[in-house]
């Protein structure tokens, strides 16, 4: 006789079972701390393409870095507008976003600088700015196109550790025919973003490699919740005649009962039969899911609200984690994106047939200022204005500033602005948020 548990296994047909969990195919059971996992390009593509959460982790910081773009400050305002117009024509904003996405996704992001020069040249030649005619296009690409990285390994060279040449795959496809060519390209003809590279390695590392174990745990939690929801409620049918049924009869009866009583249908049973509904306990599951979310957010260095797709650039009171996140984005703009933008703008200034002729960048006073990344919601903005007004009143009563100085500082020549212009470092933001939070607590008793 087959045991009841064996019958249950035989009849079980779970649409979410797949390869199963906690068996020889489950990678989670074979995790060993400290054993790194090198992901292939195909594995990275599958991870990225299969999960919107992974896409958010990769895409959102790159989008935030470029979303509000920048303002070019220089004495010649018309020249500044011409430069910004040329960058718009080159679709520089889109190219920079894609470069930083590729950097996070595959370890290296590039932008090819398509130029016209006064003389014939090879891509392996260094780009001479004094012979530059025009900047024609910007194309973002990843390390998938790169066959070899040539790094300066001379520890006594000023350019030690820097990329000097690339061997790039320039394959082109025409229907079913593919023509493969390879070119050596000098680094001056590229913009290159590489955030994570281990010493002794040439290629950068994908952000998904250190996140792989955590993403596995996250996938397991989603799978487990799906299992719980799938079996959240089930019905139990009791009858003294069950023992007399064959395995085939039980299988057919189970199918019929499952079909008839899947919803809140009317059950017609005899006096000695019983039909009850059982529920799955979910006690403690919120704490477990919160742990997984906190682990993922900490590893990605992104607040949970940002990973989940909160409205970009909007902050409510006391959201310290979101403020810290935007502070890191500002640092990335200054440290990672600004040097690339400065190089591109210098190329436009030096190009003979751009902007009305060649202009020496060193002869101008110019600066890149990134536009603010975030603003507070209306309620928090009103509370901040109230705190600032009370502070100004104290300054005025103690003769620290005059009324005219205060009017000029707060309203300027254009009157009261729609949004409060507040600038400060992380400590200033935290102190301001604390004040708003305490004010809310006081207002609510």
TrEMBL record:
InterPro entries reported for this sequence: Acb1-like_N, Phage-assoc_HI1409
Pfam (any one): Phage_portal_3
Domain Anti-CBASS protein Acb1-like N-terminal: 43-393
Domain of life: Bacteria
Protein name in UniProt: DUF1073 domain-containing protein
Organism: Lysinibacillus mangiferihumi
């Amino acid at each position: 006789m087959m045991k009841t548990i064996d019958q249950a296994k035989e009849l079980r047909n779970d649409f979410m079972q797949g390869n199963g969990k906690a068996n020889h195919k489950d990678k989670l059971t074979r995790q060993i701390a400290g054993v790194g996992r090198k992901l292939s390009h195909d594995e990275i593509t599958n991870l990225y393409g299969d999960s919107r959460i992974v896409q958010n982790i990769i895409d959102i910081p790159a989008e935030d870095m470029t979303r509000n773009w920048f303002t070019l400050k220089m004495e010649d305002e018309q020249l500044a507008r011409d430069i910004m117009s040329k960058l718009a024509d080159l679709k520089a904003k889109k190219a920079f976003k894609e470069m930083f996405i590729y950097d996070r996704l595959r370890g290296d992001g590039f932008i090819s600088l398509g130029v016209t020069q006064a003389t014939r040249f090879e891509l392996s030649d260094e780009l001479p700015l004094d012979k530059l005619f025009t900047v024609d296009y910007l194309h973002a690409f990843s390390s998938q196109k790169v066959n070899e990285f040539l790094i300066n390994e001379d520890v006594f060279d000023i350019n030690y550790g820097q990329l000097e040449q690339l061997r790039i795959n320039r394959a082109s496809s025409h229907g079913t025919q593919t023509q493969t060519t390879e070119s050596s390209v000098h680094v001056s003809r590229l913009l290159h973003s590489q955030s994570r590279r281990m010493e002794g390695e040439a290629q950068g590392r994908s952000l998904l490699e250190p996140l792989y174990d955590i993403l596995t745990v996250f996938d397991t939690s989603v799978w487990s919740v799906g299992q719980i929801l799938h079996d959240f409620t089930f019905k139990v049918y009791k009858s003294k005649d069950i023992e007399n049924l064959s395995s085939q009869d039980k299988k057919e009866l189970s199918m019929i009962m499952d079909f008839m009583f899947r919803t809140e249908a009317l059950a017609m049973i005899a006096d000695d039969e019983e039909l009850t509904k059982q529920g799955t306990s979910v006690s403690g599951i919120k704490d477990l899911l919160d742990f997984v979310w906190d682990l993922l957010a900490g590893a990605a260095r992104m607040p949970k609200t940002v990973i989940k797709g909160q409205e970009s650039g909007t902050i409510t009171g006391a959201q310290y984690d979101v403020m810290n996140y935007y502070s890191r984005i500002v640092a990335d703009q200054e440290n990672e994106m600004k040097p690339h933008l400065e190089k591109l703008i210098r190329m436009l200034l030096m190009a003979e047939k751009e902007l009305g002729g060649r202009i020496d960048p060193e002869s101008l006073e110019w600066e890149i200022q990134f536009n603010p990344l975030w603003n507070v919601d209306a309620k928090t903005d009103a509370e901040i204005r109230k705190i600032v007004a009370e502070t100004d009143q104290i300054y005025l009563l103690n003769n620290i500033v005059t009324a005219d100085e205060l009017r000029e500082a707060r309203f300027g020549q254009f009157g009261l602005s729609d949004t409060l212009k507040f600038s400060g470092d992380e400590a200033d933001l935290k102190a301001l948020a604390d004040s708003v939070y305490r004010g809310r607590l006081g207002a609510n008793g």
